Here is the input.
Amino acid sequence: MMHCTMDDLVALQANEASVWARRHVEDCTACRAELDKLYQRVAQLKALPALRPPRDRWSVVRDVVRTQRARRRRTWGGWGLATAAALAGALLVPGLGSNGTLRAELSIAKNQSATLEDQLQSYDVDGRVLTGRMAAKVAELEDRIAVIDGDLARFGTLKPQAQDAELVQLWKQRVDLMRQLVNVRVSTARYVGL
Amino acid sequence: MTVALAVPDVLVARAQAGDEAALEALYRAFETPVYNLARRMLRNAEDAEDVLQETFLEVVKSIRDYRGEGYLWGWIRRIAATKALMRIRREQLRATEPLDIEPGKPGMHVGANLDLERAFEHLTDTSRSVVWLHDVEGYTHEEIAELMGKSVSFSKSQLARAHARMRRLLDEGAGDGEGAHA
Here is the structure.
């Protein structure tokens, strides 16, 4: 008597079996038992305990996140300076009207942001300590800046030509947060006494 | 294993904005399922750790591209499976993938009674990947074929061969003879 092959059984499990296999398994005890074994194996595989990573790899991922963030800030800062210079030239051209005013505000905000970035870069962050409360404040400010950076990135994607009030507002918010961050870093941190 | 599929939208939004705490929360939520998937697909534990790391580096890089279509776990799982399969392909290019390992051969820690987990471990990386993705993760043969760059019939035949192999190993471990359903 011909029995089901494993291909037939796997197909039966997936409801894709041939008519012959479906009829055969109804009459053949051995093949029905094999099909049950297949179901059991699959159930047992699903029930295997989760294997947990032996080591924590988050620190590596986190370092990459931080590097990307620092690079993005430098990019924004550099872009701010370059744009400020370009817009300063553009503002000399008469007839820009209110658009010109927005551009000037944008230029100033980006310039301020870049200056604050430079200030933060030149500051020896690792050599100083913060109280727990201040460290939490720094983390919160950095997170809020990251959110604004995300908004700015999306803004650039959605409206590449836009330099409207919304954009200026975002940059002003960023400057405000950067100012607070520099203030916390510079004013409240102390050098480690080594 | 069961994976908690629901991740708050606000957490995803914060992660998309580059919020480190949110990214770490995602890492913590999915590190075990990602590692488990990779470890089940790959023979080597260190390779699975590398896949875990590569997966989350990709998640960090591409999280902004995630549009909230389907579960986040489905998106992350696909990245992890792709990374694991890339590793398998690289290994296959380096050397011919070994045939299924015979129990009792030198170097293998096989007792008289093979349990299912051990039988599963004796399959090739490719066979294990197909079994795990299909039987446990619920991928269709079409999805597996796409991930592997192979045909649907390849996926189906790998699955059948792997089950035949596991059945034989389990029977041999239990001291039974070969059945008719290999």
About this structure: The longest strand of chain A covers residues 128-129. Chain A has a mean pLDDT of 76. Chain A has seven helices and two strands.
